[in-house]
Design brief:
Elements (H helix, E strand, L loop, with lengths): L10 H9 L16 H14 L8 H14 L2 H9 L1 H10 L8
């Protein structure tokens, strides 16, 4: 993955990847469709939003986030990982435009 971030474009990184025979797959630095952690944060946020009553203070929010993180179904994470092939295929097909994830 290459999000065009400056550290990822350093000559030493390029040289290492080339020496290891690692091909880059370039995509936008701002593509949340391909950033699994963004999707995980979304799932966590949705879980917190379903709580009743909703968190009223920062401390409540911190507690709610920690509790929901512990309860987060591992199937959500598994799906995010296994869906990357589909996501990348769609991303290439739409030529770096938004994909429905």
């Amino acid at each position: 993955m290459d999000d065009n971030a400056r550290p990822h474009r350093a000559a030493i990184v390029d040289d290492f990847l080339e020496s290891e025979g690692i091909a880059r797959m370039e995509w936008s630095a701002y593509s949340s469709d391909l950033n699994r952690i963004e999707n995980l944060w979304d799932a966590l946020g949705r879980s917190v939003c379903r709580r009743f009553p909703p968190p009223a203070t920062l401390r409540d929010l911190e507690t709610a986030l920690q509790e929901e993180w512990r309860f987060l179904d591992s199937a959500v994470v598994d799906h995010l990982v296994t869906s990357m092939i589909t996501r990348c295929t769609l991303y290439i097909k739409v030529r770096s435009s938004h994909i429905p994830y």
